[in-house]
Amino acid sequence: MIVYDGLKTDFLQSVEDDSIAMQIEANILAKMGRHTSKSEFRSWENSLSYMYRVLNDDEIPSDAGIAIEYNIPQTSKRVDFMISGYDDKDAANMVIVELKQWEELDSVSAVSSVDALVDTFTGGAIRRVVHPSYQVWSYAQLIKDYNSTVQDNDIEVHPCACLHNYMRHENDPLDSEQYRDYLDEAPAFTKGELRKLRDFIKKSVKRGDNKEVLYLVDKGKIKPSKSLQNSIASMLEGNREFIMIDDQKVVYEEILRLSQKCMDDYKKRTIIVQGGPGTGKTVVAINLLAELTQRDQMVQYVSKNVAPRQVYLKKLKGHFKMSSVDNMFKSSGQYTNCGKNVAHTLLADEAHRLNEKSGYYKNEGENQIKEIINAAYCSVFFIDESQRVTLDDIGSVAEIERWAKELGSEISYMELKSQFRCNGSDGYLAWIDNVLGIRETANYDLEGVDYDIRVLDSPNEVRQIVTEKNRVNNASRMLAGYCWKWITEGKNNTDCHDIKIGDFEMSWNLDSGEPFAVSDTSINEVGCIHTSQGLEFDYVGVIIGDDMRFEDGKVITDYTKRASSDKSLNGIKKLAKANPQEAERRSEEIIKNTYRTLMTRGMKGCYVYCTDKKLAQYLREEVTHAKRND
Question: Quick one: the chain helix, strand, coil %, rounded to 5?
């Protein structure tokens, strides 16, 4: 959907009349039912006045098409500015421009060891955002990959970014070598480079199209391109990490059937897939992503946590840096402004981590579960309620059922039972649930379980073993409960140690953007729940802090021992004043679920250190007891 469209002459006239921002504001209200903020209105006035100067050139045809605020179909993404026309070979072309209000004082800085992110001042603080060139390149890829009219008519899409207030300097962070691939594909034009931007447009728009190209793009049918289908298929082919076995294949085939049924009868369906740690929820989701794309569906993998998205995307892409597959992995907060059934199928992994509100301040949207169901014909939720680890986690079977019924979506239930993590041991999971007091289990012995579980006397001993295991294939990690404050000043420095226990010192996982699960240097860091949940390793070393102890013959929790920098229990003190019993129940569930999740990240072994000696002794005795019949 295009909010504003016209010819170049129409656009220039509207800017001269000081009416362009008001026209866009009125169109957004009429077409989208949304009111415009003052800051957004001012940004239009500033940026579009600049684009007036850029286009005020006789060599840019007067009947070139102009579109402002183009909502890319099946997404909540909007392209700021588009110019359409024909080149000197009469080929259809469209230039898309991402307009930024960044200024020199915004303190842009490159982020090392991470792809396509920069730090800049936005929203009242320094925040980590995507590089403008990457952002507009990804929008261009979305259009090329999912708009069948663009594919069928060979419409060329040329992306660029315009930072008209930003003064570029020599060796500017914006031009760091790590962004070179994106800058080559989508150049960034800054203050004083108006003529360069103008020349960029004139290369592709030699003759006007009277908005014909814009019309074709706006009315294009949504279908994944052959190149995208081939890309995801080739990435999956031969990748052993995504091979399905046993009931994974059964669940996969049934979801395919139901998803295809949605495409045949255009009825909404919601599928709830329950499964514990290591049962292959993500393996099924990634295979569905590939196969449904092959079947011409607009399908996306969705997760609240960034870590699983980063890791599985990296595993798929391998050595490829730039790939349109990037657009298939989405945050759960991406659907707040989406219309009904804009996607064919959405695959919500780690659905237990979904939140009510989205956005940095948790003030956007209504409910992420509702928004995902609303946005797709077929919504699939992979869930393990025992892995809810923050007060914000609302993902539950009951909550999914509630919104599915309200939105008229038919509900189906499936379960993944076979346990592949922990060397096939359901017994190990049952043992953890029992000894931590999460639930009583009838069968919790470790007899015959080929799994290395040990409770050690020092964190240094744990680190030594995990480091040795990691030398084999970089697949072992140190993890800990969030009982040590993350030192902000040292978030990119391994010499700044957050976690100190006697003579043991280590840093929390660095804020470098490189996924903790796959980085070669992560063995020198300690991962938390947020960077390890949804992922798996060969071996893990888990440090249990003071938030869990053993007293009076049982395992107890103490939320006051959590670090102040931990956001998992935000609001617990307020809840404790209003309802102490509920606060105790919720905090105990979260803390125990956290350690249960950390202790089930290792497929072959888990080495534990407890700051509470009584808890260590209790766990050690339980291990011995469970192995008594070995």
Answer: 40, 20, 35
Between CA 435 and CA 208 the distance in angstroms is 73
Tell me, yes or no, whether 32 and 125 share the same domain: yes
Q: Let me know whether 193 and 237 are in one domain.
A: no
569 assigned to some structural domain: yes
Residue 179 sits in the same domain as residue 287: no
Among candidate residues 191, 218, 245, the one where a domain is terminated: 218
Residue 423 confidence (pLDDT) above 80: no
**Is 422 within the bounds of a domain?**
no
CA–CA separation, 545 and 562 (whole Å): 8
Please give the tally of structural domains in the chain.
3
- Tracing tokens 């599985």 back to the chain, one arrives at 312
Task: Report DSSP state, residue 620.
Answer: H
Q: Tell me: do 195 and 272 sit in the same domain.
A: no
CA distances to 450, 542, 603 from 453, in Å: 9, 11, 11
Q: Is residue 341 exposed (0-12), middle (13-18) or buried (19+ Cβ within 10 Å)? A: middle
Amino acid present at 345: T
In a domain, 73, yes or no: yes
CA dist., res. 422 & res. 624, Å (int): 18
Mean per-residue pLDDT, 138-164:
94
In total, the chain counts a number of residues equal to 630
SS (H, E, C) 280-334: CHHHHHHHHHHHHHHCCCCEEEEECCHHHHHHHHHHHHCCCCCCHHHHHEEEHHH
Look at residue 36 and tell me if it is in a domain: yes
Last residue of a domain, one of 218, 249, 284: 218
Of residues 527, 26, 19, 75, the one with CA closest to residue 343: 75
Domain that holds residue 258: 226-416
**Element containing residue 43 per DSSP (H, E):** helix 38-55
Q: Are residues 255 and 381 in the same domain?
A: yes
Whole-number mean pLDDT of the chain? 90
| 269 and 398 assigned to the same domain | yes
Give 230-269 as a 3 state SS string: HHHHHHHCCCHHHCCCCHHHHHHHHHHHHHHHHHHHCCCE
Q: pTM of the predicted model, to two decimals?
A: 0.85
| Helix 38-55 with 20-32: angle, nearest 10 deg | 130
Q: Which of 86, 182, 189 is nearest to 134 (CA)?
A: 182
Are residues 206 and 231 located together in one domain of the fold? no
* Centroid of chain to Cα 212: 36
Work out the end-to-end distance of the chain between its first and last CA atoms, rounded to an integer number of angstroms: 65
440 and 561 housed in the same domain: yes
Tokens of 207: 């003759």
Alpha-carbon distance of 50 to 603, in angstroms, equals 57
CA distance 479 to 389: 15
**Coil, helix or strand at residue 88:** coil
**510-551 tens-digit pLDDT:** 766 578 998 889 999 999 999 999 999 999 999 999 999 999
Q: Is residue 369 within 8 Å of residue 270, measured between CB atoms?
A: no
CATH classification of the domain holding 315: 3.40.50.300
